[in-house]
Design brief:
binds NADP nicotinamide-adenine-dinucleotide phosphate; Quinone Oxidoreductase, Chain A, domain 1; Rossmann fold; single chain; alpha/beta; 7-stranded mixed beta sheet; 6-stranded parallel beta sheet; 26% helix; 9 helices
């Protein structure tokens, strides 16, 4: 089968198309014939050897897949061969066939097309978890989403509005992306590479600041979050796209009753996989009934995975990038 492999950490040129044998599923596993997968920023960090659980080489990158059930382990129940599914695979998803644990495979409603299905799992489920389980957004609160035109960003902006946020502010790295963030529901969008975002956020919230901040960027700008976070506000730290993490002083939290919370979908998949099901069910329903839009910014074939990752790494992508693998014909 065609598989993209990383056998050495480094730049996009380290992504190599190889031929690997198709694997047999274990007793509790499912084999999926992939139709498409998506590029996530974590794939880039993993290729660079900078992902929090990276270390083993060679590996296949990719966090999520949409495809057709192709083989079932002996103890698997509730699924049948030929069903359309999405999944979070055990190894990587940049591959013609992939293996996933049964509890991370979800049946796809007929209303959800292949492209939407492949693009949504990681970003919509993470955004939903961040806004519900992690920061516990309440209706009427205000939200700041960094990198708001990206995969997670466009999902989080839409979900925050759906969950009743009074106002959603997005920060982005270019003026073109400001329009994208607004198209997906941000009430305000600012270019944080031009001027400090805290002042713009305070102005947009009449000096009050926001209740929830979703920060996947980190770095030197992280401290700015505290200048525009309201009392009782919560910051979710779930990435470091800038290349480093910010740090937090207890004095920023104590008297203002504010909190900083971490979240990793990878850790949750490993330690509490059952807790993902409510988010998966909710977001699949909202995509099926067209409440949520899945923005596909670019499409590539599997062989061009390096081009796809370069687009994201150079901050030129908007929404999601798809890797097309097969036609989905049964
Ligand atoms: N914890 C979790 O479970 C989890 C799950 C999924 C994703 N994430 C994290 O969420 C973030 C977004 O992931 P995604 O897959 O949806 O990617 P994405 O947002 O589509 O793309 C990454 C974005 O990060 C921003 N960025 C800021 N500084 C950057 C830099 N120095 N180099 C490159 N990009 C930079 C860019 O947006 P601007 O140009 O607008 O700044 C870029 O478009 C990533 O940090 C990822 O690791 C975490």
């Amino acid at each position: 089968m065609r598989t993209v492999e990383v056998s050495e950490f480094g730049g996009p040129e380290k992504l190599r198309l190889v031929d690997r044998p198709v694997m047999e599923p274990g007793p509790t596993e499912v084999r999926i014939h992939a139709v498409a997968t998506s590029v996530n920023f974590a794939d880039i960090k993993a290729r660079q050897g900078l992902y929090h659980n990276s270390g083993r080489l060679p590996f296949v990158p990719g966090l999520d897949v949409a495809g057709i059930v192709d083989a079932l382990g002996s103890s698997v129940t509730g699924l049948s061969i030929g069903q359309r599914v999405i999944a979070f695979p055990t190894e990587g998803s940049y591959s013609e066939y992939t293996i996933a644990s049964r509890n991370l495979v979800y049946v796809l409603p007929d209303e959800v097309g292949w492209e939407e299905a492949a693009a949504m799992p990681t970003v919509f489920v993470t955004a939903h978890q961040l806004l519900t389980e992690v920061t516990r957004l309440a209706p009427g609160e205000t939200v700041l989403v960094h990198a708001a035109a990206g995969g997670i960003g466009t999902a989080a902006v839409q979900l925050a509005r759906y969950l009743g946020a009074r106002s959603v502010v997005g920060t982005v790295g270019s003026d073109i992306k400001m329009d994208i963030a607004r198209d997906y529901g941000a009430n305000h969008a600012f270019n944080y590479t031009r001027e400090p975002f805290a002042e713009m956020v305070l102005e947009a919230t009449h000096g009050r600041g926001v209740d929830v901040i979703l920060d996947s960027v980190g770095g030197e700008r992280f401290a700015e979050n505290f200048r525009c976070l309201a009392p009782y506000g919560r910051i979710a730290v779930f990435g470091n796209a800038s290349g480093s993490y910010g740090s937090v002083l207890g004095s920023e939290l104590h008297a203002s009753c504010r909190a900083v919370l971490g979240y990793s979908m990878g850790t949750t998949r490993r330690l509490r996989p059952e807790t993902l099901l409510p988010s998966v069910t909710t977001v699949l329903g909202l995509v099926a009934d067209k409440t949520l839009k899945v923005p596909i910014g670019a499409r590539y074939v599997l062989e061009d995975a390096a081009l796809a990752q370069t687009l994201m790494e150079t901050r030129q992508s908007v929404g999601k990038i798809l890797l097309q693998i097969s036609t989905g014909e049964k």
